[in-house]
Amino acid sequence: MDVIVDPNDVHVKPFVEFYGDEEVQALRQWMREYTWDSNSSLRTNLENAFGVPLPREDCLAARPDDASEECPICYCTELELAPGKVEVLSAICMKCKKGYHPSCIREYLDTGIADCPNCYEPFVYATNPS
């Protein structure tokens, strides 16, 4: 999928190109019919259009160059919850050993999905106090 945004006017509906055959036809139709809210941000419109949250704005270290692990939900290593208060990957899936920010996994599980977003097994976790 490509999303092409006009940098001079980010409130205008972007051009969205889906790649694939019949399986993406419904997405193409949905995007053509989606009513873009010019009073909302690009981020809000994209989240509403696709029905999924984008990586969080409060990410302190998105896609680091080093080998640091990222949260599979927000793609960050650390989240700034409040000035001076940082959350690290301390909720660890017992099956695949993938780490999550407690606030990310809590929000994910609150949607009613009970499986780990990484290994798709029932999410059983331990907390790492680091």
Structural class: alpha+beta
Query: How many domains comprise the coordinates?
Result: 2
Mean pLDDT: 80
What is the oligomeric state here? single chain
Which homologous superfamily in CATH is the superfamily of the largest domain?
Answer: Zinc/RING finger domain, C3HC4 (zinc finger)
Give the number of DSSP strands.
7
Weakly predicted, low-confidence segments = 61-67
Largest sheet: 3 strands, antiparallel
Morphology: globular
What is the correct CATH architecture of the largest domain?
Answer: 2-Layer Sandwich
CATH class of the largest domain: Alpha Beta
Question: How far apart, in Å, are the first and last alpha carbons?
Answer: 37 Å
Return Rg in Å: 17 Å
Summed up, the helix count is: 3
- Give the strand order, joined by hyphens, for the main sheet: 6-5-7
Task: Describe the protein in words.
- A hairpin with a 2-residue loop joins β3 (79-82) and β4 (85-87).
- This protein has helices at residues 25-33, 42-50, 102-109; strands spanning 2-4, 15-17, 79-82, 85-87, 91-93, 99-100, 125-127.
- The chain folds into two domains: 2-50, no CATH class; 56-130, Herpes Virus-1 (2-Layer Sandwich).
- The chain is α+β, with helices and mostly antiparallel strands.
- It is built from three helices and seven strands.
- Mean pLDDT is 80; it is low at 61-67.
